[in-house]
Design brief:
Layout (H helix, E strand, L loop, with lengths): L6 E5 L4 H12 L3 E8 L5 H15 L2 E6 L14 H12 L5 E4 L13 H15 L3 E4 L7 H10 L22 H9 L2
Parallel strand pairs: 1-2, 1-4, 2-3, 4-5
């Protein structure tokens, strides 16, 4: 991919991290498209509602990919999820050239939030797409508190985000995502 490429697909859940990614790339003057993937997560209704509000706020295109499955995914780590999101995105956007971005960050034990994951996915993308798409994770070395501070400093609409792995309205207050929000006081 040449250095002039300025297109990015942000894998977008409507949560704090992916909303920070949208803001980051918009500030960098990228052409930003948000992609929401409904893969059977419990929180899909509230995540999508949040994603739509935030996309409207930023005046960007939100693509929705709805996949059918009888499996209902629970809270916590879903092994293979981020790799699945990336592969699904390239399948649904075969002509896209640019960056696919994830709001992953440090401070988690999940493999698909690691530097090694990003490196290996980029090797896979190189094999499939000859460098036309790269995975970027601008907050990979940041912790959750650093992302929260970025959001506050850059007027990211945290009040529009939704983060509850159980998908309840109001949020359950018990899952890891809700615990993060309590710790951040947002």
């Amino acid at each position: 991919m040449d250095g002039k490429q300025k297109s990015v697909i942000v894998l977008f859940s409507g949560g704090i991290d992916s909303t920070a990614c949208l803001n980051y790339y918009l500030k960098e003057k990228f052409d930003v498209v948000a992609v929401f993937i409904n893969y059977g997560q419990k929180a899909k209704k509230n995540e999508l509602k949040s994603a739509r509000k935030i996309a409207k706020f930023y005046k960007i295109n939100l693509k929705e990919i709805n996949l059918k499955s009888k499996k209902i995914f629970s809270a916590g780590e879903i092994i293979g999820r981020n790799a699945f999101f990336i592969m699904t995105t390239i399948m649904y956007n075969p002509k896209f050239k640019g960056i696919i971005s994830l709001g992953i960050h440090s401070g988690t034990t999940y493999y698909d939030c690691s530097e090694n994951f990003v490196k290996l996915i980029n090797q896979l993308l190189q094999g499939y797409l000859n460098g036309n798409i790269l995975l970027d994770a601008p907050f990979l070395k940041w912790n959750k508190f650093m992302i929260y501070n970025y959001c506050k400093d850059n007027n990211v609409p945290l009040n529009m985000t939704y983060s509850c792995e159980n998908g309840t309205d109001p949020p359950c207050g018990l899952c890891l995502s809700c615990q993060d929000r309590k710790e951040l006081k947002c």
